[in-house]
Structures are given as structure tokens and as C-alpha cells.
Amino acid sequence: xxxxxxxxxxxxxxxxxxxxxxxxxxxxxxxxxxxxxxxxxxxxxxxxxxxxxxxxxxxxxxxxxxxxxxxxxxxxxxxxxxxxxxxxxxxxxxxxxxxxxxxxxxxxxxxxxxxxxxxxxxxxxxxxxxxxxxxxxxxxxxxxxxxxxxxxxxxxxxxxxxxxxxxxxxxxxxxxxxxxxxxxxxxxxxxxxxxxxxxxxxxxxxxxxxxxxxxxxxxxxxxxxxxxxxxxxxxxxxxxxxxxxxxxxxxxxxxxxxxxxxxxxxxxxxxxxxxxxxxxxxxxxxxxxxxxxxxxxxxxxxxxxxxxxxxxxxxxxxxxxx
Length: 322
Description:
The protein is α+β, with helices and mostly antiparallel strands. Helices cover 40% and strands 17% of the residues. It has helices spanning 3-16, 19-22, 26-33, 42-46, 49-52, 58-64, 100-104, 135-145, 172-180, 197-230, 262-274, 284-294, 300-303; strands at residues 40-41, 71-74, 77-80, 119-125, 151-157, 160-165, 183-185, 188-193, 238-240, 246-248, 252-254, 257-259, 280-281, 311-312. It has a five-stranded antiparallel sheet with strand order 5-6-4-8-7, sandwiched between helices. A hairpin with a 2-residue loop joins strand 5 (151-157) and strand 6. The longest helix has 34 residues, at 197-230. The protein is elongated.
């Protein structure tokens, strides 16, 4: 490792942890906030593209940062000297990262970019009820009332929680209306507020990893749907019909997800029932999934007449069937 490369490594790592970068870099801001002592794993640094261009060996990073007055290394991680307090995250985008076309035009649909630097909004309900409030119900009714907000994530515990919305082309009028009003859902009334800096830091410390896990799953599903859409027509797997003709296997879009074939749909339905005890009620996504399946039935209207809820149980006429 040459001295020049070591100097470049030092310069780049110190920049990652600098006030200038952390004022607008949500990724590193959240990584540092996630640890009470401010440590970021060396492996995270090695995964940065600019560091990859210089080295793949963490020993080079350790050597490069010897004597640094900006960062310190210990416990297999790096942090700002003395766990220096973080600057306030302003979420200002770098001009080079956004083209004029992106600024001027937005399709309204959620893209991978929306999951970066989200806007966190806190909510709570003080409604007294014997029922337990559902974040799924709240999320569904919130999205129906505010369709222009790109809702990315939500969580709730003990009648309070947070949602994440896209900070890209945000409908600020809708946000102001949300903060000033009340969202009614399944008998509960929810109010919303902007968390202060300490509350925001606590959210990322306690739930940042959950946000990353959930959003990665959503991005994978989004990419799969896009891929499935792009392969419609001549592409896709082909199956043989009873007449001996080879045709493209039909895919199904059910409750927000694409299933490659009917067997995948059946497997999902069985998986839902297998985790339920007899007499247990289906709620939230599981209920929406079953409703979406029944829509494909020829007697949909008859089956859903006077519908109230689904219960998993043994079939009254066929033994060992649920």
C-alpha cells in the first residue's frame, strides 16, 4: 500500500464522518446514530465504493487513520473523536445526485430513490377501546385519505409509533393537513407530529435496522414486479395445455405482490393457514390476500355476501382439510 493511497483512504474516511457530510448524508448519520457510542463497523466502510477503489483490507484503513484528529478506531469500528455530537441532518440533496429532469418531473409512484432520506412523522392515538389498534388499518386508511403522500413504512407499539414518507417531491400541503387533522381508522383517532431531534435520533437507534429490513424487502418486490412487467408478452415460462399447446404461464398480482403461477398462490394461502390455530381470525394483510383470491372465483359475489371476517378451521365435510 503506497503512502498516497493511505492518504486518500484517510481523507475519504474523515470526510464520511465530517460535519459537512453528515449534515446531508442520511446513511452515515443513521449508522452513527444507531450505536449509542457512535461506532460504525469497519465492514460498512469497506463496502463504500470509493474505499473499494483503494483497498479491500481493513488493516489498510487502520494504518491510514493512525494519528487522525477527526476519527478514532476501536472495537472493530470507527467513530468521530470522543463520540463528537452529530450535526443536524438537513436532508439537502447533492446537486450532482439529482438531474433537472428528476426535479421537474415525478411519476407519483414509489421508486427505489424514495426510500433514501425519508421524512419521519410520529403518531399516537388516545382512543380508549377494548380492541388493539392495528398499524395496518391505520396505514391503509391514511393512504386512502392522503394518496399524494408516498407512504414507505409504518410501525406502532403501545398506541404510538412512526411512519416514513418520501422526502422527494413531498406534497407539503398534504403533510400540513395531516399534522393539523385527525385520521380515523377502525374506531381509533390518530394525531400526527414532527419528532424533535432527540426523538428522531432515538427512532433510528431503536428502529433503523427494522426500517432497512422492511424497505429492502419492498424494493426487492418492486424490482420483481418491474421485471415481471418487462417480461410479459413473448417472455416468461411456458407450459403445455391439455391440447398440447405451449403457452406462457399465467402470473397473478394479488394483494400488492406478483406470483409467478397458481402454485405460488396456493403455497402462500397454505402458509397463511398453517401458522393459524383452528378458530383463529385472519386480519390485516392475510385477510386482504384471501379477499383478493376470492375475487377470481366465479361465484365471488355469492361467497362474499354478508361477509364479516375469515376464520381458519377444519372443513365441515372433508376430513383433514382446512
